[in-house]
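Supplementary Methods. Inverse-folding protocol.

Structures were first reduced to a discrete structure-token string of length 271. This string, shown here, constituted the complete conditioning input.
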């Protein structure tokens, strides 16, 4: 299963959502690959820390290889790196991604990510792709390569207005490039249940029949601490409320009902 976390708006939590869902997937025994297509490399830094800036054989190197710029003719697995967390692997991003975007577009390399993940697919049970905050070559490549789309939504009017353009781009990608792509659901993020505006906006989306997950994600300083220590929440704060919300979201996505005892055993194995 290949999932892409996509939103054209920045600051909606794409990297945090992709990384934490992938970490939970790995903690429950799924061999899981994270793909970082954002030149800011937040996902890579989240799981690799300072080591992320020193890596070679990144997703940028793979794309350069498709252009003939990289003499290293690596195998698909050569671009994948282990993390410190069991079952969690990453195809890291690089700051040079933006520098090669126009070259990739002009050479019509839009299907190369799908080719790469197709070759890696048998090695992983779940693949999560983090995308840049734009509808560009890399986010389109991810939509073409994926089977399901998750849309982070951060409960404000700007996000709501942008949502319709985003849904239109997904539909266009389905029609033109990837008929198997499905909108799995909208992830309500940074939700404050006691505040009127977020509740009103979410209720309006539900009334419109949009596919919102029932498991909402709240806000917590623990997320920022998780970023600073380069430890996804399930590893650094397994019993925290926000972690439990991520677990509930993961279970809803997977269509499974894991008992609390099983949850705690899975979390304990990572400590």
């Amino acid at each position: 299963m290949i999932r892409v976390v996509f939103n054209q708006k920045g600051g909606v939590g794409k990297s945090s959502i992709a990384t934490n869902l992938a970490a939970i997937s790995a903690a429950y025994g799924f061999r899981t690959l994270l793909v970082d297509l954002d030149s800011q490399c937040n996902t890579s830094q989240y799981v690799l820390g300072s080591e992320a800036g020193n890596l070679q054989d990144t997703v940028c190197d793979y794309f350069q290889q498709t252009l003939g710029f990289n003499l290293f003719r690596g195998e698909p697995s050569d671009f994948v790196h282990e993390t410190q967390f069991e079952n969690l692997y990453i195809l890291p991003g690089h700051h040079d991604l933006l520098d090669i975007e126009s070259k990739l577009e002009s050479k019509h390399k839009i299907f190369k990510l799908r080719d790469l993940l197709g070759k890696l697919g048998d090695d992983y049970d779940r693949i999560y792709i983090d995308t840049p905050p734009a509808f560009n070559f890399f986010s389109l490549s991810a939509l073409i390569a994926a089977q399901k789309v998750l849309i982070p939504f951060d409960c404000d009017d700007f996000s709501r207005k942008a949502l319709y353009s985003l849904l239109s781009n997904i539909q266009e990608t389905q029609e033109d490039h990837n008929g198997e792509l499905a909108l799995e659901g909208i992830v309500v993020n940074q939700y404050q249940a006691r505040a009127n505006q977020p509740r009103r906006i979410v209720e309006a989306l539900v009334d419109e029949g949009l596919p919102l997950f029932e498991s909402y994600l709240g806000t917590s300083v623990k997320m920022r601490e998780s970023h600073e220590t380069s430890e996804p929440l399930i590893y650094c704060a397994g019993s925290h409320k926000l972690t439990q919300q991520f677990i509930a979201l993961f279970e809803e996505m997977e269509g499974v009902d894991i008992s609390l005892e099983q949850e705690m055993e899975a979390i304990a194995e990572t400590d």
